[in-house]
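INFO  loader      accepted 1 record
INFO  loader      residues=61
INFO  predictor   begin
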Amino acid sequence: MLHSMSTTVAFASERSADEVNEEIRALWRRSGGTLSVEQREEYQRLVLEWAAAAPQPEKAA
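INFO  predictor   done
INFO  writer      dumping tokens
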């Protein structure tokens, strides 16, 4: 039996956008401004988590 892989991003914790943003900033500080392949992968994961946690603007009616 074949199982399909999920394409959705799941996050282990429910963190605020501010918390995730701080982790992104810390990653850049640790890297000295140049991300390794592994750090780029972490950065991409963090940006997706940040986007999911960021407040969404209300649409005008």
